[in-house]
Each structure stands twice: as C-alpha cells, then as structure tokens.
Amino acid sequence: MPSYDYYCKECKKMFNVITTLAEYEKGQVACPKCKSKKVEQKPSVFFAVTSKKS
Questions:
Q1: Strand order in the sheet with 39-42
Q2: Are 6 and 39 spatial neighbours (Cβ–Cβ below 8 Å)?
Q3: Phi, psi angles (nearest 5°) of residue 39
Q4: Do 3 and 47 meet the contact criterion of CB atoms below 8 Å apart?
Q5: Residue 47 — very low, low, confident or very high, per pLDDT cuts 50/70/90?
Q6: How confident is the model at residue 22 (pLDDT cuts 50, 70, 90)?
Q7: Closest CA to 40 of 17, 19, 23, 18
C-alpha cells in the first residue's frame, strides 16, 4: 500500500499515513496527535521493489 507524508498546520508535526488509493482519494486525513483536518501533503520517498536483478 502507498505511504503518504503529511504536515499538521495546527500542532506543526509531521506524520505518515499508509492507506489504499481509494481511501487516499477521499481526502479525509486527520492528524493522529491533535485530530485536526488542517493538514498538508508533503513529498515522500518512493521505492520500487521488483523481482528482476539488475
């Protein structure tokens, strides 16, 4: 499942959410610390895992 990084504008904390694409598209993310919905998505690192050897 994809992982998304967010920044809470209320408590000024970064947090990570692992969710399905369907849940992500709903856009109802809240800060786990203060429960605020004033969050901003930040770029996150992406790793591709394949079975091929390079």
A1: 14-18, 3-8, 39-42
A2: yes
A3: -120, 155
A4: no
A5: low
A6: confident
A7: 17
Alpha helices in the chain (DSSP H): 21-26
**Residue 46, C-beta contacts closer than 8 angstroms, at least 6 positions apart:** none
Cβ neighbors of 31 (< 8 A, separation 6 or more) are 6, 8, 10, 11, 13, 15, 37, 38, 39
Tokens 């969710």 sit on residue: 19
User: So what's the pLDDT on residue 50?
Assistant: 77
**Looking at this protein, which amino acid is placed at residue 10?**
E
